[in-house]
Amino acid sequence: MATTKAKSTKKPAAKKTTAKKPASKSKTTVKTVKATAKVTTVKSEKVGAEKTKIVSEKKCHPVKEFFARKGDPDENILTIFKDTKIIGAIIGEIIGTALVTGVALTLGLFNPLYLIFAYTGITAAVFALSGAHLNPTITAGMMASRRVSAIRGVLYIISQLIGAWIGFMIVNSFYQAGIASGNIDAASTVLPTLATADSIKATTEGFSFFWTITMIEFVGAMIISFFFARALDYKRGAFTFGAVVGSGVFLAMLFAVVCCSNFLGIQDNVFIMNPASAFMYGLLPASAEGFDALMGQLMPMLVSYVIFPIFGGVIGFYVSDFANKLQHRDLKA
Questions:
Q1: Residue 168 lies in a domain
Q2: CA pair distance 58, 94, nearest whole angstrom
Q3: Fewer CB within 10 Å, N side or C side of the chain?
Q4: Confidence of residue 201 (pLDDT cuts 50, 70, 90)
């Protein structure tokens, strides 16, 4: 009996020891698996970091980065109309450009102090809708620096032309109503119009103000676009953006007024620095006897008020981007 009891007591003890051994093995295997997982994740993270560093170093070519696309890379003619925000942007450009053109027609271009307040308010009001370009020179600079897509730029320019036409029609309708009522004299009260270089009376016989007016438009557009590009980098609110852009318009207009009045002796409106507004009340109302005479009148105005200002707008954005690169700062859209 004693032997059987001893055998019976030994057998469960053997079973207990055999049951514990697999448990200890499983714990050790789990620990080793966790440890290897940690090692592999760390290695993978390190490899990924090395890969990203290599890729970023390859993409840091200064020329390619300078001309790299800063806007939405997925925006094109097929995707832009999928979002209804483009409709609001177009409406904002139409309303804003109409107001800017109306201000230029009513206040005149020789009152830059009024323009800074008007332009600041209009820009701040439209900024959230479209970015408040309100000028084809700005849009051309945004397209050239690849801040906006080509399709958005074309839509903005068309909207600006429509807005300038609406602004001209509104102001002209009030002007014509005043003449019809007899309260104003058409001879004494006229809307400001762009004077061509040939129509300006020069003090020296045979002297032409063509390139002088063209350079005033060119430099003024470059100043406005440079201030606009700087305002984009701040992004501290609509009012700050409008104040910076309005200050640029004021400085450009002040430069033009001083050059025309003090240095050149020109008292007519020979600058506007907005091709959309120039089209509406400088180019389209032009008339002449025959097509050749009309084109001979329009081509110098196109060069002075459209082509060179657009080049000036593009250069203003490039100067701002170049200044950012010299400061080793990232270009912001």
A1: yes
A2: 42
A3: N
A4: low
